[in-house]
Amino acid sequence: MAEDEFADLGSDRTLLLVDDDAPFVNRLARAMEKRGFLPETAESVAEGRARAEARPPAFAVVDLRLGDGNGLDVVEILRERRPDCRVVVLTGYGAIATAVAAVKIGAVDYLSKPADADDVMNALLSRDDMLPPPPENPMSADRVRWEHIQRVYELCDRNISETARRLSMHRRTLQRILAKRSPK
Questions:
Q1: Which of 46-84 are b and which e, b meaning 16 or more Cβ less than 10 Å from the residue's Cβ?
Q2: CB atoms closer than 10 angstroms to residue 160
Q3: Alpha-carbon distance 51 to 42, whole Å?
């Protein structure tokens, strides 16, 4: 990595990676180290919180769903301990509602898995005044519809009857949609 990419960000290149997928987090740590970061890994909310409290990093990549809880808890600690920390939330369960929640509590970006090290680095180093490039593979119309249904479902506290009423949809139809995997 060129030195000028970190020029505006200071000399602190510490990076906390929090993900319960051990092979993935170790692979990402090696890739980010090659790009000039100083990574430290955690595989749970508890471990991530402890590392964030002990040594708040300049950068962090936090998985949203971890075995022992929600990665947003780690993001909150990072924002408290180090307000200038640039946090990217990474998840395999992409939903608009969780992306909004992540950004509201201070994440600079939200990436869906699979995201490679270049995607992560670009998100961590992006400037606030620059728009990110358009996605290479934007969501399909079916995926956008599914995301909207998931968002309303979450806002209704996972109440199927209330969600169906708000979406003007039959409850059984909604149950079938929710039981399926997300479309590509």
A1: ebbbebbeeebbbbbbbbbebeeebbbbbbbbbbeebee
A2: 14
A3: 8
Mean pLDDT over residues 3-22, rounded?
Answer: 73
CATH hierarchy code of domain 3-125: 3.40.50.2300
- Tell whether domain 141-179 is in CATH 3.30.565.10: no
Report d(CA 151, CA 163) in Å as an integer. Answer: 10
For residue 114, say if its preceding peptide bond is cis, omega within 30 degrees of 0: yes
pTM over 0.85: no
pLDDT tens by residue, 38-74? 999 999 999 999 999 999 999 999 988 888 888 889 9
The amino acid that residue 56 corresponds to is P
